[in-house]
Amino acid sequence: MxxxxxxxxxxxxxxxxxxxxxLKELLKNKAEPKAIIEFLKELSPSGIELEILSLSTFDLKExxxxxxxxxxxxxxxxxxxxxxDFVQSILACFLKTHQELIxxxxxxxxxLQRIQHATEMAFxxxxxxxxxxxxxxxxxxxx
Length: 143
Fold this sequence. Notes:
This protein is mainly alpha-helical. It is 81% helix and 0% strand.
């Protein structure tokens, strides 16, 4: 009985370690951004952080740069305005975790500038809606 319990716990730990490669597999296989975001939503905050941390390893066999692929996914999600708050929190964790690597790579910095522009555009649309609503409220309050 104790032997079975020990081995089942060992198997569970092994599967948890292997799950940190799921995001890499999705990125390598060019999965849809929606599928990647849905996968990340299923994880706990620490699981998300582990997946993001695991992206810093470089696949020498297939020359896959997971950081660039993830930035591309974040850019596409930001431009599409899908799950905007969630994507922004993932981006914050991603930048906090990999800031040194990103600052040293001009390609990734260019992608970050595009993400910044897309974020500013999305926020300006929200800001415009808020200002219109404030004007309408002020107008109807004075009637």
